[in-house]
From TrEMBL:
This is YajC. The keyword Transport applies. Belongs to the YajC family. NCBIfam families: yajC. Residues 101-113 have a biased composition (Polar residues). GO terms for cellular component: plasma membrane. It comes from the Bacteria. Residues 114-129, 136-147 have a biased composition (Acidic residues). It comes from Bifidobacterium canis. Its main location: membrane. The keyword Transmembrane applies. SMART domains: YajC. InterPro entries: Preprotein_translocase_YajC. Residues 92-147 are annotated as: Disordered.
C-alpha cells in the first residue's frame, strides 16, 4: 500500500515538472520570436523600465541600440521586456462623476438626459421632504392639544 502511494506521488511530480518545463519552453520561444522581430522604429520597454525606439539591432552580438529622448543607449537583446504601448489619455471632461468614460458618440445627448433626470429627481425629493415636514408639524400640535 505504501509503495502505491509513493508511485502515485512520483508520477504526479513528474507530470507537473513536464507541464512546467513545457510552459517555460513555450514562453522562451515567444520571447525569442519577439526579439528577432524587432525592427528600427519600434517602441520597446526594457526590464529596467526604460522606454525607447529601436535604432539598430545587431543579431551577431545580440545587442540593440535604443533612442530614448535623444540619448542613444546600447543594451543586450535579453534586456528588452516587451513592445511599449502608450496608454490612452482620458481627460476629466470625458468621464462621469464615477470616473467611467462617457460615450463619445453623443456627449450632448448624455448631458441633456442627465440634467432632465436630475431636475425631475430634485422635484420629487423636495415634494417628499415637504410632505414629511407637514406630517411632523401636525403631530406635535395634536399631542399638545391632548395634554
Amino acid at each position: 500500500m505504501e509503495y502505491m502511494m509513493l508511485i502515485i506521488l512520483i508520477v504526479m511530480m513528474a507530470v507537473m515538472m513536464f507541464y512546467s518545463s513545457r510552459k517555460a519552453k513555450k514562453q522562451q520561444q515567444e520571447r525569442q520570436a519577439f526579439r528577432t522581430s524587432l525592427t528600427p522604429g519600434t517602441e520597446v520597454i526594457t526590464i529596467g523600465g526604460l522606454i525607447g525606439k529601436v535604432v539598430e539591432v545587431d543579431e551577431q552580438y545580440e545587442e540593440i541600440v535604443l533612442d530614448s529622448e535623444g540619448s542613444l543607449l546600447r543594451f543586450s537583446l535579453q534586456s528588452i521586456s516587451k513592445a511599449y504601448v502608450r496608454p490612452a489619455y482620458v481627460s476629466d471632461d470625458e468621464v462621469d462623476e464615477n470616473g467611467n468614460p462617457l460615450d463619445t458618440d453623443s456627449p450632448a445627448q448624455i448631458q441633456s438626459d442627465d440634467s432632465t433626470e436630475t431636475e425631475s429627481g430634485n422635484d420629487d425629493s423636495e415634494t417628499v421632504v415637504e410632505e414629511t415636514t407637514v406630517v411632523e408639524s401636525e403631530e406635535p400640535s395634536d399631542e399638545t392639544n391632548n395634554k
